[in-house]
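Lecture notes, unit on binding sites. The following record was shown on slide 14. It pairs a sequence with zinc ion.
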Amino acid sequence: MASPQVANGNGSLSLKKPSETKGKTITCKAAVAYGPGEPFVVENILVHPPQKMEVRIKILYTSICHTDLTVWQGQNESQRAFPRIFGHEASGIVESVGEGVSEVKEGDIVVAIFNGECGECVYCKCEKSNMCERFGVNPMKKVMEGDGTCRFSTIDGKPIFHFLNTSTFSEYTVLDSACVVKLDHGHSLSLKNLTLLSCGVSTGVGAAWNTANVHAGSFVAIFGLGAVGLAVAEGARARGASKIIGVDINPDKFIKAQAMGVTHFINPKDEEKPVYERISELTDGGVHYSFECTGNVNVLRDSFLSAHKGWGLTVVLGIHSSPKLLPIHPMELFDGRQIVGSVFGGFKGKSHLPHFATQCGHGVVKLDNFITHELPFEEINKAFDLLIAGKSLRCLLHF
Ligand code: APR
Ligand code: ZN
Ligand code: ZN
């Protein structure tokens, strides 16, 4: 069988013949986290063959999302499980499949999704939800769903835990087939840009399109202008929102944000009055849609109050890892504001991503601006530093 050839945006690349590795344990590079906040150790690990309904993929590009940062730092005690391989945004190529997998085969181009779609559970069968009973988001889950064991181990045989159904900071990873979406036709996106659909861009654009259903001419406020917030901006711009107000404590974010649809910028540090009052002035009483993309509970309150009484909707995208309750008095809901959470932008990964990829390929959403840095995989610690310093949106790592 010939080696698969894949267009990667920079020509084509040739991979090892799958038959060389199929059914065998692979030794390859991975970035292993041994403790909360400890630098990643790039070392050789063992990746075991995929079991029933599992897929082993060779990662071509992976990128870092704020959720990797949050859980790696171990902000929430219960999320701590080490050693562990983080990472949940990636594009890659199927190396081999386990028993019973029919949706993908060796050589297919795929992206990893942390919010899987088994297609069979009560949620997957319901159009109203993109949850999945077995493969939904659970940062505490650290083993494979099928048999409760790990597919990774150290060279001397100690298990290494999984993360968010994906664990993409590894040259090869094993996922349940519910968490693998085939995206090798019907779009013109490069592999680099496909990586963005794994989490950040889909989450933000989907929140604007699916969760909020932003309408033309509307007013929008976005709190936190990282990749997720800016993807909301792209989604709102594509829907024809007339005012898109970006709120961020890092003024450098505004330059990039302008290119992605943000029309007004507020730095809370420069304001004497509460941010929601400032937004109310700019929008005749409040926005139609506000999006919380920081994971900060105080920001969530500002975001809620910046929505217009009577009809304003707040969408929560930030991961609030410490156990705090909503900063809202129940009576405040009588003002007619609504609040809702959005996971993976409301997209059902397998059902919706192929069409979304086509739309992105047609330029409905512009992806190129999201990739601000590219580094070799070995420099993963540097990539984390860039995110922590607020310098990167997405830093692509390549093997
Ligand atoms: N007020 C306004 N902006 C803030 C505040 C604050 N108090 N605190 C942080 N920010 C801004 C940061 O300056 C940064 O620009 O929020 C942005 C967050 O961006 P990233 O760190 O790039 O995170 P991103 O990947 O976009 O994820 C955002 O969504 O998926 C979740 O876990 C993720 O909670 C995170 C959020
Ligand atoms: Zn993410
Ligand atoms: Zn399901």
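Take-home: The first strand starts at residue 5 and ends at 7.
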